[in-house]
Give the backbone structure.
Amino acid sequence: MKVTIADIRQMKRKKEKIPMLTAYDYVTAKMIDEAGVPLILVGDSLGMVILGYESTIPVTMNEMIHHTRAVVRGASNALVVGDMPFMTYHTNMSDALRNGARFIQEGGAQAVKLEGGEVVAETVRRLVDCGIPVMGHIGLTPQSIHQLGGFKVRGKGLDEAKKLLNDARILEQAGAFAVVLECTPAALSGLITQRLAIPTIGIGAGPDCDGQVQVISDLLGLYTEFVPKHAKQYARLAGEIKAAVSSYISEVKSVAFPTAQQSYVMDESLIKQLKSRD
Ligand code: KIV
């Protein structure tokens, strides 16, 4: 059964933790869906962990839609959230609505995520009014990395903590069905979680959030250029993949691969006929 935003809200009410993961392609989405993840984010982290950009800023709508379609094909049960890229919801309301609608109509996602608090509240309200469920995202917001001056923990000081608390409330009032808290101190995330009726989904935000989200490449040890403090590697696939490829290279060179087992047979008499015609 397809997970709905009502199911996600219900999980908070039942105090059932909400695991969320990113995915960017059909195969991964299918595996994590079958493993039972209820929420899949097609994050704009796509830019860094799949497309090799230095940040999420160059990611375009077309790239996001292309990958969202692939993930949606693999996600039979999980609710798929498409991440709206940099500046696709700031220029004006009609751009925001058109781009939000593309995720639902062309991408097949069930919801969108956008970064920011009070500053995007009106946009969140309009998207929700138009029937597009929205997940908020506050704390460290990677699309504002140049403004923030780096990937740092947010909300350690009183003023910033108050602002985050207020932003979270405003997103809830604007109709967001959940809010991501990225790199916020655990105690502050716990307080925000208590104060909101909608679920908080943490990444580097401590154990008291209603759910957790991780970038799949961090979790599987696939992206090793930078491993954030908040990530836990449940596997080290980069090493396993390199070892498998090295074995393949040496077996091709030594003609240990392919063997008869990986080859197709043809009737001997046909080969004889072919040879006699030369
Ligand atoms: O793009 C992404 O993967 C995200 C998560 C880190 C929440 O926004």
Observations:
- The pocket of 3-methyl-2-oxobutanoic acid is lined by residues 22, 41, 43-45, 83, 180, 182, 203, 213, 215 (CB under 6 Å).
- The CA atoms of residues 122 and 232 lie 36 Å apart.
